[in-house]
Design a protein that fits this description.
The protein is an alpha/beta fold. It has 10 helices and 10 strands.
């Protein structure tokens, strides 16, 4: 294992925090070394200073993209924090269907990882609307900083054990068999989700219209207080009045720090 010095870790951490908001705390030091070791060996580097300089000088952006893929954690699964999906189905969707006269639902899955979250939302919408879906624009935007997980999300192919939380009816209606161990999301659901690579630290988001619902769950746990607050304010500005923000159950918005109204654990609303 090639050890990273204090100075090198501080340099790498400062850059990652500034560019992507991720706080590489000192306890993550061994994790960073483990995940980046093969990259150093593959490129012939014996220390992290040379590797960092290589990443920063690579005009193609490929080295930086690889670095982000290596250090980001993308643990998720279908129906994670299921209470949110139940609330979305039972409360949020009826409200939107009744009040959105343009029949244009704008939903953003920010930090979508390998696609389980946006595909679940798409399946809920499909099931609720049924034949009336043809009259609605129900496309879901799903973004992540990692091109690696986006590739899996776009492919929409999952191992059987990854679908343990999916009901038998949903498996039948929304998945097709690839082989003995894998199933794939059917095209009509895949086509409902638009995947894009996006850095949540960008000063300006490239959206022309505001969203009715934003899911950004278990992403801000990697941000420090200042960056988290900045992102919460940006989410507020990106929501329509009456819109909902879903965050992870391990995350909170401190009372009095934003204009969001608390609804239930990890669910907030813009009045």
């Amino acid at each position: 294992m090639i050890a990273i010095t204090d100075k090198e870790f501080e340099q790498l951490s400062a850059y990652i925090r500034k560019q992507y908001g991720i706080n590489l705390r000192s306890e993550k030091r061994n994790l960073v070394m483990g995940r980046l070791y093969n990259e150093l060996v593959k490129n012939g580097f014996s220390n992290y200073t040379d590797y960092i300089n290589y990443v920063l000088s690579d005009k193609s952006g490929m080295a930086l993209n690889t670095l982000i893929n290596k250090i980001t954690t993308n643990h998720t699964y279908f129906m994670r924090e299921a209470e949110h999906f139940h609330y979305f189905r039972e409360v949020v969707m009826p409200y939107l269907l009744q009040n959105e006269k343009s029949r244009d639902l704008r939903i953003w899955s920010a930090g979508c990882s390998s696609g389980e979250e946006p595909y679940t939302l798409a399946m809920i919408i499909d099931e609720l609307l049924g034949r009336n879906k043809v009259w609605w624009d129900t496309k879901i935007l799903a973004t992540d900083i990692s091109s690696k997980v986006l590739e899996k999300a776009i492919n929409a192919c999952y191992e059987k054990e990854e679908l343990e939380n999916i009901s038998p009816q949903w498996r039948l209606n929304y998945f097709q068999k690839v082989d003995e161990n894998r199933l794939k999301v059917v095209d009509r659901i895949r086509n409902e989700v638009i995947f894009r690579r996006l850095n949540l630290m960008d000063d300006i988001f490239p959206f022309k219209r505001k969203f009715h619902v934003i899911f950004c769950r278990n992403v801000m746990i990697y941000f420090d207080k200042e960056i988290k607050q900045r992102l919460i304010n940006k989410f507020y500005n990106q929501l329509e009045s009456g819109g909902y923000l879903f965050i992870g159950h391990s995350e909170t918005i401190e009372k009095g720090t934003s204009n969001f109204r608390y609804i239930m654990p990890a669910v907030y609303r813009k009045d």
